[in-house]
């Protein structure tokens, strides 16, 4: 598979070029083994992006996971993506790097 265009930090330039194989490749680069909860967060992010044309804020993903997994899972997104929502979750989900956010 040929890698689509990415920026200097490794984020997709065109989020519509994303697919699950690419997500697995990005996850491997981040040393993340994708499981059901990762895919749930990623698919939620992709759906949100399709509806709003912008990456969801981490609070939206946190709320989504809490609705599915229960309130005790409030920090689940940070367990799934320990080096940061923007650095890992946004990259794996094929979002452009949100410029107004920190990498944490």
Automatic annotation (TrEMBL):
InterPro entries: DsrC-like_C, DsrC-like_dom_sf, DsrC-like_N, DsrC/TusE. The keyword Phosphoprotein does not apply. GO terms for biological process: tRNA wobble position uridine thiolation. Its main location: cytoplasm. GO terms for molecular function: sulfur carrier activity. The keyword Cytoplasm applies. GO terms for cellular component: cytoplasm. Keywords: Cytoplasm. Transmembrane segments: none annotated. It is found in: Cytoplasm. Belongs to the DsrC/TusE family. NCBIfam families: dsrC_tusE_dsvC (TIGR03342). This is Sulfur relay protein, TusE/DsrC/DsvC family. It comes from Sideroxydans lithotrophicus (strain ES-1).
């Amino acid at each position: 598979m040929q890698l689509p265009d990415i920026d200097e930090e490794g984020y997709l330039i065109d989020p519509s070029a994303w697919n699950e194989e690419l997500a697995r490749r990005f996850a491997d680069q981040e040393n993340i083994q994708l499981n059901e909860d990762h895919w749930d967060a990623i698919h939620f992010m992709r759906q949100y992006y399709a509806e709003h044309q912008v990456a969801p804020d981490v609070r939206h993903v946190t709320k989504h996971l809490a609705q599915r997994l229960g309130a005790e899972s409030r920090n689940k997104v940070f367990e799934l993506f320990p080096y940061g929502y923007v650095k890992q979750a946004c990259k794996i989900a094929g979002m452009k790097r949100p410029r107004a956010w920190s990498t944490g």
